[in-house]
């Protein structure tokens, strides 16, 4: 066995292929390559079997008495005169708006604690500081509430106008998130 260490493995004569060493590839290697190409070529051709009969050819063999043609009947769609803003919409919008303003009102508890110099209770806004600021002012707090309420009501109106099944989702999500904020503010800051 050759015990010499080569700097590059590609210069080692045993690791080079016969074609790379200057010779012709062996007959066995040629047979393997030809067989692989033939199997791939024949596999793609053999998958295409005989085409199935068209439906029209089986209909032609039947007697004309057995053929039944169903004509599509289009019925005019009855336009429903459901108003976009009804009692359900107004009640959900009222609940959403009132919960949003309740969240803003309870958010001001942190400001009151901060102005009073209380320690150990929440004296800065933590959860929604990106909306209200760390020490929210009254104007900013209620303007955020107004924007959230108008935005969710407009989104619900738009979805309902375009007959979406999920038109109430913006109002419900706004209500749930606001009520969660009210709950946290009452527990932590009161």
Strand and helix map with partners:
Elements: H1 27-46, H2 55-61, H3 87-116, H4 129-132, H5 138-161, H6 169-189
Helix pairs in contact: 3-5, 3-6, 5-6
Kindly describe this structure.
- By secondary structure, the chain is mostly helical.
- The chain has a domain at 87-189.
- Helix content is 56%, strand content 0%.
- The protein contains 6 helices and no strands.
- The longest helix is centred in the middle third of the chain and has 30 residues, at 87-116.
- The radius of gyration is 39 Å and the shape is flat.
Short key terms for the protein model shown above:
flat; mainly alpha; single chain; 6 helices; 56% helix; 190 residues
Give the C-alpha Rg: 39 Å
Q: How far from one another are the termini?
A: 87 Å
Strand content: under 5%
What is the structural class? Answer: mainly alpha
Give average pLDDT, whole number.
81
Morphology call: flat
Low-confidence stretches: none
Helix-strand sequence: HHHHHH
SS element count, helices:
6
- State the share of residues found in helices, binned by percent: 55-70%
